[in-house]
TrEMBL record, chains A, B:
Biological process per Gene Ontology, one example term: histidyl-tRNA aminoacylation
Entry superkingdom: Eukaryota
Enzyme class: ligase
Descriptive protein name: histidine--tRNA ligase
GO molecular function, one term: histidine-tRNA ligase activity
UniProt keywords, alphabetically: Aminoacyl-tRNA synthetase, ATP-binding, Ligase, Nucleotide-binding, Protein biosynthesis
Family stated for the protein in its record: Belongs to the class-II aminoacyl-tRNA synthetase family.
Example of a GO cellular component annotation carried by this entry: cytosol
Reactions this protein catalyses: tRNA(His) + L-histidine + ATP = L-histidyl-tRNA(His) + AMP + diphosphate + H(+)
Binding sites annotated in the UniProt record for L-histidine: 106-108, 133, 149, 153, 302, 306-307
Source organism per UniProt: Anser cygnoides
Pfam families reported in the protein's UniProt record: HGTP_anticodon, tRNA-synt_His
Aminoacyl-transfer RNA synthetases class-II family profile domain span: 60-369
Length: 481, 481
């Protein structure tokens, strides 16, 4: 123990490994599980996830975003009062003396805290990390208590809708790059929604609850929604019908123009602002050439009183004759919007930093890709080893070690079996099992001739390569892999 | 709110963003900090860390390792009884109903839990992730309560010292690749150390405490160590001197041979085993050609009763005329060893899975690299943007958006200023500030001529490129960057 404490003191954060384990303190076998709603990621999952995250990050970087990292732990008071009723889902740490801590619930509140704390008024950043929710998720459907969020946000005071349009473009690029099938990006603006409710004579006190009903329109028919409005939310049938005339609308520029001419709506200041910006957004998205997959949808509400302007949500569309996905798996895979008020909540002087962002549902997308891989029976390699250094006869361990050391030092990804005298068959089998494409076989004769026998696992083709050319040959043969 | 709950239920892990923020529940300005011992990583730090991690991961993959991920949360009982006195440094979560949880203290115990839980008897894995310790770290010296660990481990029953030798080779490769200056890898074996103490007549009950004293030999002279042994640990001066004759020794194969001939030590079974394996290790390291930086050092102990065999630790050596590092910053940057008992602690039947691993001190190395960067005044780019799409005159926003959209779709990393009519000077200044190497300038004349003016920020050279050749030109000019 003492050693390690000394170590810590003298060596800053030198690698610290576990200490003094005495068999007396065996862990109970009962501990052999991960906490509820959490999971280990075995190599195959990490490999697939890396592929997914790689595609997403490439897009974020293509748009000039920088990465930041914030602690998993936040002060309890930083998170409290940010998530409404959901605050009860926040993991709190035991009071072990000192500050009261909690695990982050998402990446957006820490981002706002980071901006206010560092007085940053202008940044384009992405952040991919785990967040924590004491939920009761259906892990069978890929939902967990510890899960990754993948956020891209643009903070700063800019000309209208330019960052907003880029966020929508990013969603379009990522979903296209990932080839998840057909998708639709619904857009709306909370100011338009508020305007609609206002001109339909709904008291502001009923906005939120009414919107949560409207929000169901993507799952249930209007009649159901109307009944809930009248029956549960206490709206008059006439008011409900007036709302219905609006929220069942969806379209593009034409619809925006039509609503800008709407005698009632055009009189509402908020709605007019929202429609003006929506028009601008569509003009920009037209220049990006992506309006084909954009739908201005007045029923889209999202987390309403969190957003202050444009909101959007990408959904995958059910495909005909697609046996990979079942209906359940079709749903929202990205969403976001403008939130100009959050950062100001952390600034002592309440200084606002306008923000717009998008969250890519990588857990959702990950489980879709997992289904795809299973269906396609594609075997994902969990390692990148290019060549196994094998021996044809016994007593060649030294030669194997000399050769593999040369390969490592040349940057070749290489493995050997950790056996003094492995059977050639076992060595070849290992390549089959792990997908290693090449085997460099050292044998007595080859050593005499100054060559190495290079075997292509897939074709079983074998060629003798002069030792001095081996590295080049391996590079050449694996460059496409 | 309802919307989001519905969403969660119906859409699996669709992106979930913060909810209902009402200005009434403003966070206190006092919350504007990260928890004690934690920190945000701004873009420049993340960029430098990515560079470092990239080098380390490249080495792990070169050696055929796969990546796994485990939850930050573990069952309390999984961690308890694994860290001796340090268990008091474990962060525990509040009992909010359900399981008692804690934050992982390192990556090794979760790894052992993972192996036992999944009955994995054979894996080569790396894991780079944050761990948590309720320590009182000197954050001024780069130590934190939330920090990254970077572990590579080989689990499985193999022929002696082959995986062990590869771990040492990996440390050698990583420290060489990172160009941290001269370094030394000390190796020892806990069986040799136990043997030494036994033949010096030390009762087993005093092994641990004596070792923690011996361990100080790398910081203080022998006299100090001897005094502590005699004064504090109650050893006889003679016994202390006998120990001194051994633990002050360090060397290579020659020393191993000498100790194998040692009349006393050669009679001790444990010591003999350890020396035999140490000889084998040196033979393998000789084949790897790295013995020049290896020292068999009998004073190296590390977390003694955790390790069961070979142990090693890499230290940076103080360099002459090196103004970058101060003496304090010289120390251990990697360490590890063989631990054959840990996995068995989790297996109900106590089945053992021999393991050997190494932990790279990336926090330590990161702070060294940070010092280097500061000293060198190298400006680290936080983004990878290749080109800024700029305009020479007003009213060219549409053209800028059309062009940048083409570039994004072609995979070019491009940005624009989010202004309708930005001044050319401001656009050029933005490139200077963020290190963007190229500017694609659209102007009225260029549009007429079907060209784009490409400006090299560094040289201020400007060339007109035909629009259809622009993407190729940008790729060509940024391929080396």
């Amino acid at each position: 123990m003492l050693r390690l404490r000394l170590a810590a003191a003298a060596w800053c954060s030198a690698p610290r490994r576990p200490l003094s384990v005495s068999p007396r303190r065996l862990a109970a076998g009962s501990a052999l599980k991960t906490p509820k709603g959490t999971r280990d990621h075995p190599p195959a999952q990490v490999a697939l996830r890396d592929r997914l995250v790689g595609t997403v990050v490439a897009c974020f970087k293509r748009h000039g975003a920088a990465a930041i990292d914030t602690p998993v732990l936040e002060l309890r008071e930083t998170l409290m009062g940010k998530y409404g009723d959901n605050s009860k889902l926040i993991y709190e740490l035991q009071d072990q003396g000192g500050e009261l801590l909690a695990l982050r619930y998402d990446l957006t509140v820490p981002f706002a805290r980071y901006l206010a704390m560092n007085k940053i008024t202008n940044i384009k950043r992405y952040h991919i990390a785990k967040v924590y929710r004491r939920d009761n998720p259906a892990t069978t459907r890929g939902r967990y208590r510890e899960f990754y969020q993948c956020d891209f946000d643009i903070a700063g005071q800019f000309d209208p809708m330019l960052p907003d349009a880029e966020c929508v473009k990013i969603v379009h690029e990522i979903l296209s790059d990932l080839q998840l099938g057909d998708f639709l990006i619904k857009v709306n603006d909370r100011r338009i929604l508020n305007g609609v409710l206002a001109v339909c004579g709904i008291p502001e006190s009923k906005f939120i609850t009414t919107c949560s009903t409207i929000d169901k329109l993507d799952k249930v028919p209007w009649e159901y929604v109307k009944n809930e409005m009248v029956g549960e939310k206490g709206l008059s049938p006439e008011a409900a019908d007036r709302i219905g005339e609006y929220v069942q609308l969806h379209g593009g520029l034409d619809l925006i123009e039509q609503l800008l001419q709407d005698p009632k709506l055009s009189q509402n200041k908020l709605a007019k602002e929202g429609l003006g910006d929506m028009k601008l957004l569509f003009e920009y998205l037209t220049l990006f050439g992506i309006t084909g997959k954009i739908s201005f949808d007045l029923s889209l509400a999202r987390g309403l009183d969190y957003y202050t302007g444009v909101i959007y949500e990408a959904v995958l569309l059910q495909q005909q004759n697609d046996h990979v996905e079942d209906p359940v798996s079709v749903g929202s895979v990205a969403g976001g919007g403008r939130y100009d008020g959050l950062v100001g909540m952390f600034d002592p002087k309440g200084r606002k930093v306008p923000c717009v962002g998008v969250s890519i549902g990588i857990e959702r997308i990950f489980s879709i890709l997992e289904q795809r891989v299973e269906a396609s029976e594609e075997k994902i390699r969990t390692t990148e080893t290019q060549v196994l250094v094998a021996s044809a006869q016994k007593k060649l361990l030294e030669e194997r070690l000399k050769l593999i050391s040369e390969l490592w030092d040349a940057g070749i990804k290489a493995e050997i079996l950790y056996k003094k005298n492995p059977k050639l068959l076992n060595q070849l089998q290992y390549c089959e099992d792990t997908g290693i494409p090449l085997v460099a076989i050292v044998g007595e004769q080859e050593l005499k001739d100054g060559v190495v026998k290079l075997r292509v696992v897939a074709t079983r083709e074998e060629v003798n390569i002069r030792r001095e050319n081996l590295i080049e040959e391996i590079r050449m043969r694996t460059s496409q892999l």
